[in-house]
Amino acid sequence: MPIQLNTLSQSSLQDYNDCPRRFELRYLEQLAYPAIETEPALENERHQKEGEYFHRLAQQYFVGIPAEQIAKLANTENLQRWWTNFSNAGNLTGLKDLSGLKTEITLSAPLGKFRLVAKYDLIGFDHEKIYIYDWKTYRKRPKNEWLAIRWQTRVYRALLVQAGAHLNSGKAVQSEQIEMVYWFPDFPNDPARFAYKTDQFKRDWDALTKLADEIASASSFPKTDEVSKCSYCPYRSYCNRGVRAGDALEAELETEAEELFDINFEQIGEIEF
Fold it and tell me: If you write DSSP's letter for every residue of 38-76 in order, what string do you get?
């Protein structure tokens, strides 16, 4: 029997956008992954875990642990390279006052019958500007045009407008204050930057509201017509859409790992119902 879904995230919205059937199996049925996502499987799993570990290293740095101490924890070839690039970036954020940095912040706001939840790698405040930083350990640098239309880019900026006042000394966050920056440890000199505007926010929030209403009222969750996406889907055997997994380099640009939230809503910045 499907569970009652209470929250939506950029990952679940992206899954619904890409394939409603995958959304149903993953979030409503909560089925275990029956198929290997990508080939080679072990290499891809190791890369994902290293990516998660890099996020922890970056978090430790921004809460004040000395870089030399953190460097000792970078104990694989990938982690050593990523950490070296991170360290060589100097003041990666470009902010003059690093006291305005907030790491691993979770925000939440009502969205139709759901709560929209997002966990931010780093948010930086610099006078009137507010920067969202997100670390992406992709092995292939994605195009900015691709990143711009992903739900993460849209959700993270829009949710900061909706629920970020308590991070901004109680003042409402304006769309024009926000810039989102994706930083790639394997492409340290080529970050992707996305400013924001009021009309973009309105379009994004209207689209999010419409999507949430569609999910809430859905009576069926059809399979995607884009069969090529199925190569990267761990649920493809449920849909009789192949056995062989897709290539890992392509898959990491097509699939999003879901953030596992241990949510205490009393500690999350939000706006009230």
Answer: EESHHHHHHHHHHHHHHHHHHHHHHTT--HHHHHTT--S
Reply yes or no on domain 7-270 having CATH 3.30.300. no
pLDDT tens digits for 109-163? 999 999 999 999 999 998 889 999 999 999 999 999 999 999 999 999 999 999 9
Burial of residue 75 (number of CB atoms within 10 Å: 0-12, 13-18, 19+): exposed
| Nearest Cα residue to 165 out of 156, 173, 155, 177 | 173
Alpha carbons within 13 angstroms on the beta-carbon side of residue 11 total 14
Burial 115-133 (b: 16+ CB within 10 A, else e): bbbbbbbbbbbbeeebbbb
Instruction: Count the Cβ atoms, other than its own, within 10 Å of residue 142.
Output: 16
Question: How far apart (Å, rounded) are the C-alpha atoms in residues 86 and 63?
Answer: 15
CA 258 to chain centre: 8
| Amino acid 96: pLDDT | 66
Which stretches in the chain have pLDDT values below 70?
1-3, 34-42, 96-99, 242-273
Prediction pTM value: 0.87
Residue 190 and residue 90 in contact, taking contact as beta carbons nearer than 8 Å: no
CA distance 161 to 147: 19
Q: How far apart are CA 50 and CA 57, in angstroms?
A: 10
